[in-house]
Amino acid sequence: MAVKPTKAQKKIAYDAKLCRLLDNYTQILVVAADNVGSNQLQSIRHGLRGDSVILMGKNTMMKRSIKIHAKTTGNKLFLNLIPLLRGNVGLIFTKGDVKDVKEVVAKYRVGAPARVGLIAPIDVVVPPGNTGLDPSQTSFFQVLNIPTKINKGTVEIVTPVELIKKGEKVGSSEAALLSKLAIRPFSYGLAVVSVYENGSVFSPEILDLTDDDIIGMFATGVTILTSLSLAISFPTIAAAPHMFVNSYKNVLAAAVATNYSFPEADKVKEYLKDPKKFAVAAVTAPAAGTGTAPAAASKVEEKKEESAEESDDDMGFSLFE
Predict the structure, then answer these.
(1) 139, 173, 208: which is the final residue of a domain?
(2) Staple 239 to which of 189, 197, 212, 229, CB 3.0 to 4.6 Å?
(3) Where do the segments described as Disordered lie (predicted)?
(4) Span 28-47, pLDDT tens digits
């Protein structure tokens, strides 16, 4: 008959396992395990089998092992894990893509009924429609102020009703009603709360960012940097093109206002002396690319000539002839 290990031996084995995992893995997901059953946890272990390992345990034991291991190896980065070990949490050590691991863990969430005294993690809304309950069950709806009507011998909910708000305790009436309606409003599973990678700790929301999100954030940062650089007249790579353009405008304005000139300023002065050239340029520019402007101009001239001839003809006749 095998001898069961003592409590001290179990602690030594646990400490050795945790230290071995810390040495072999650089990516760790801290997950909340509230209301997760043993069978559900076993399914998650099976789904992650290959390049990920789940380790559960008491927070005090994990903190103690991490502190001793950090002191022994001299790697103080492990100490960043200690503030994350709060509540009912566990660790997932992985060598794969952290985002893929998070998605695999999310697949194993299971529905759960609303038990009395449980704190609701989400808002619970009862949808309108036929409940299938006979009219004798209307007392449940009356207690909860849910508007109903009798339709074809069954109780029907008229409008959607917010039965339980997030953060509230589930009462006996709410739990009984949801049970009768066969509604399992809550779902539980391992939830990633923090991600540790080579000493850095970040929120799991970062894993949901797409390439477009990153590009948008980068563009916003460049815009802010450019605006700040222009405001304080401090040259940066982002602001340099705008500074050159603004400087050119200032030089050009000074040349127009004074006798100083240069080739580009001469063109501007020429247009300012004869504003008609602006109109000529606007007409001839499309003509060079499409060849339609001269035809359009000729049609306009023809219409003007026709209108002029008509007005001349009218002048040659009396209104009473």
Answers:
(1) 208
(2) 229
(3) 287-321
(4) 999 998 888 888 888 888 88
